[in-house]
Amino acid sequence: MASYNPLLFYLSSKDVGARLIQARKSRGQATATDTQIAFEVERKSRQTQILELLPIKAHIFDISSSREKAKDEMLESSRLRPLN
């Protein structure tokens, strides 16, 4: 897979619970329960472990404060990538 020089972007949030509450509120959905928040925290933990095992580098972008900033960073990092 590495020979294809793929880019792997992972969007992350420092406070998964706060991000989930904010996202559900902006979508007009019911407030996240403690169980839902615990699930998302565990999911992030497992995904982070998996990213470390992959044979390619994952580029992790924090969306805690701004998804637009993360998008700009992703676009910039893909422009800087060397082509094979």
What's the arrangement of secondary structure elements?
Layout: E1 8-12, H1 16-26, H2 34-53, E2 58-62, H3 67-80
Parallel strand pairs: 1-2
Helix pairs in contact: 1-2
Structure notes:
With 84 residues, the chain is mainly alpha-helical. Helix content is 54%, strand content 12%. It contains three helices and two strands. The chain has helices at residues 16-26, 34-53, 67-80; strands spanning 8-12, 58-62. It has a two-stranded parallel sheet with strand order 1-2. The longest helix has 20 residues, at 34-53. The chain is flat and about 45 Å long. The protein starts with 7 loop residues before the first strand and ends with a helix. 2% of the residues are buried. The model has no long low-confidence stretch (mean pLDDT 88).
What are the defining features of this structure?
54% helix, 12% strand, mainly alpha, two-stranded parallel ribbon, 84 residues
Could you tell me the number of beta strands? 2
Envelope shape = flat
Q: Let me know the largest β-sheet.
A: 2 strands, parallel
In terms of per-residue confidence, which ranges show pLDDT below 50 for 5 or more consecutive residues?
none
| Strands ordered across the widest β-sheet | 1-2
Radius of gyration: 15 Å
**How many DSSP H or I helices?**
3
**Estimated helix fraction:** 40-55%
Mean pLDDT: 88
Which class best fits the helix and strand makeup?
mainly alpha
Cα-to-Cα separation, first versus last residue:
14 Å
Strand content: 5-15%
Q: What string gives the helices and strands in order?
A: EHHEH
